[in-house]
Design a protein that fits this description.
This protein is about 75% helix and about 0% strand. The protein is an all-alpha fold.
Length: about 250
């Protein structure tokens, strides 16, 4: 093709057709420019296609991880609800109120009361995306903002759970001094490789219900758990918004 253009130029010069030569030269330049623009367009199209593919892969992975996070959050929330409900039952037996019919009934409650769990979401892919500075591949600005706020929300979760652990530890210390975990653990639903015997001491865990300190520690533990539950619900709302947006983006960009 280049050889053909060169021959045409030579022929026009030999024939002394200068005006036609210049017109032809301009046309040739225009054709070259068009070729360059087409090449750039194709290159840009390939780049956009590559970025779009990378975005879809990110959306699918994030959506998958947050489906797992939803299940994990439900498990933690259910256990926290059980902890609060059981604590409320226990407070119904303190002081001068009637006591549970048997120590076994109370020991079952104790095991359910000590039921708190931390929330550890699956954030590996999202953290890698953020640390690599690639969160901007997601075109949906609202989704990017929600994902950016996810880490802070989990940090708040952890702070609330630390308060639960502190309250739980104080209550546990009281039980260590005034009750028998050996008796209580006879009725745990947790699978163990060892079957423990009952306590060798003449102790009835229901006696702790008569102590004001036990009532106060139990109530404080419930408050911390309830604060944790409130925060878990906020986390659930954010999680559902992220799942909805990722699903919409995947559907809009098959």
């Amino acid at each position: 093709m280049i050889k053909l253009f060169r021959n045409i130029r030579k022929r026009l010069l030999k024939e002394n057709k200068v005006s036609k030569y210049f017109l032809y030269a301009i046309g040739e330049i225009v054709l070259v420019m068009i070729g360059i623009l087409l090449a750039l367009q194709v290159n840009n199209w390939n780049d956009r296609r590559k970025v779009a593919k990378e975005e879809q892969l990110a959306l699918v992975n994030i959506h998958r991880d947050f489906i797992t996070n939803r299940e994990l959050l439900k498990q933690v929330t259910d256990k926290t609800v059980l902890c609060i409900e059981t604590g409320n039952k226990i407070l119904g037996y303190t002081g001068s109120k009637p006591k549970p019919e048997s120590e076994e009934d109370f020991n079952v409650m104790l095991n359910e009361f000590f039921n708190s769990d931390p929330y550890y979401p699956q954030n590996g892919f999202l953290e890698d995306l953020i640390s690599a500075g690639k969160l901007t591949i997601l075109q949906n600005v609202n989704l990017r903002n929600l994902l950016s706020s996810w880490k802070q929300r989990i940090e708040i979760n952890n702070e609330k759970f630390e308060a639960v652990i502190r309250s739980e530890a104080l209550l546990n210390n009281f039980i260590l001094e005034g009750g028998s975990w050996l008796n209580a653990d006879q009725f745990t639903t947790q699978k163990r490789s060892v079957q423990f015997p009952t306590s060798g001491f003449n102790v009835d865990n229901r006696k702790m219900l008569e102590e004001l300190k036990f009532e106060n520690l139990s109530e404080n533990y419930m408050i911390a758990s309830d604060n944790y539950l409130t925060d878990l619900k906020s986390t659930s709302q954010l999680l559902e918004r992220i799942l909805r947006l990722t699903q919409e983006e995947i559907r809009e960009n098959p």
